[in-house]
Design brief:
This protein has 283 residues and is α+β, with helices and mostly antiparallel strands. The protein is 51% helix and 18% strand. It folds into two domains: 1-118, Winged helix-like DNA-binding domain superfamily/Winged helix DNA-binding domain (Arc Repressor Mutant, subunit A), CATH 1.10.10; 128-277, Endonuclease Chain A (Endonuclease, Chain A, 2-Layer Sandwich), CATH 3.30.870. The chain contains ten helices and eleven strands. The radius of gyration is 39 Å and the shape is rod-shaped.
């Protein structure tokens, strides 16, 4: 854009755009104030605007009261005095703001009643969470263990989303609260898992063994339960884990846990029995 003497164009363009002009309109208006009148081609050259756009730009300025068209053999355009032109822009902006405020008030009124009604509605199953991805299951288990305050009770059976030897957070939890775990006899099939259980025991966990467990289960503070069962029809090791934040269910399952606990055998005692029943190696 060619400079108009005494003007810094860029800040003026920005201000005019804030007041409601487009960038092309702002540049054309600034060019127009530099002379009594211009032809369209002169404005395009002075403002460094595309020739194919200049007539639309000037027509818009005239429509907004920012310029006037002077008829003749060649139509010329003259700027409206800045005091009047800017006042017109500000008036238009005030009217837009008023309309926007009215629209906002109507929108608030329309949405307030549905919002109030919605706050009274709750999902009857919002306390149930379903997990299938092994990484998500492991992360959620870590989160629940870390949040436990008094007690954690666990039925442990394969498949493991997180084997005992990898559950470092659980070992830390076992040191600071009541931790009891029941394991299936199948735990003794994997020496790495057995070593992991013994690490838990050294950390403070009380561990017992039963022949079989009906499902995987975690009970946190008699308030939250995490459990999962394999599909009885489909084969494979895929798990669907549910987390339920419901103290009544947790209390019932805790009673079931204690019934299984009473039937359990101390882990080391069960380990010794496994060695005794294991067939002797033929040399």
């Amino acid at each position: 854009m060619r400079p108009v003497e005494g003007l810094e164009e860029q800040p003026l363009v920005a201000q005019l755009v804030r007041l409601g002009l487009t960038t092309y309109e702002a540049r054309a208006y600034i060019a127009l104030v530099g002379r009594d009148s211009f032809t369209a081609s002169q404005v395009a050259r002075q403002a460094d605007l595309p020739r194919q756009r200049i007539y639309d730009v000037l027509k818009s300025l005239v429509g907004k009261g920012m310029a006037a068209a002077r008829p003749g053999h060649v139509i010329k355009y003259a700027a409206t005095a800045p005091a009047l032109a800017i006042q017109r822009l500000m008036t238009a902006r005030r009217e837009e703001l008023t309309q926007l405020e009215d629209a906002g008030a109507r929108t608030i009124e329309a949405l307030t009643a549905p919002y109030a009604a919605g706050q009274k509605q709750t999902d009857p199953l919002e306390y149930i969470e379903v997990l299938r991805d092994p990484r998500a299951i492991s992360a959620r288990f870590d989160e629940l263990q870390g949040a436990a305050k008094r007690e954690i009770l666990v039925f442990t059976r394969p498949p493991y989303a997180q084997p005992p030897q990898d559950n470092l957070k659980g070992m830390l939890v076992s040191r600071r609260l009541e931790a009891r775990s029941l394991y299936e006899e199948s735990v003794f099939a994997d020496p790495a898992v057995v070593a992991g259980v013994r690490q838990f025991i050294r950390a403070g966990e009380r561990a017992r063994v039963v022949p079989a467990l009906p499902l995987k289960l975690v009970i946190i503070d008699e308030a939250i339960v995490m459990f999962g069962m394999q599909d009885p029809v489909a084969s494979g090791s895929d798990l669907t884990i549910m987390v339920v934040d419901h103290p009544s269910l947790a209390a019932v399952l805790r009673t079931a846990f204690n019934a299984y606990w009473e039937q359990g055998v101390d882990f080391e005692e069960a380990a010794g029995a496994q060695k005794e029943t294991r067939p002797a190696r033929v040399s």
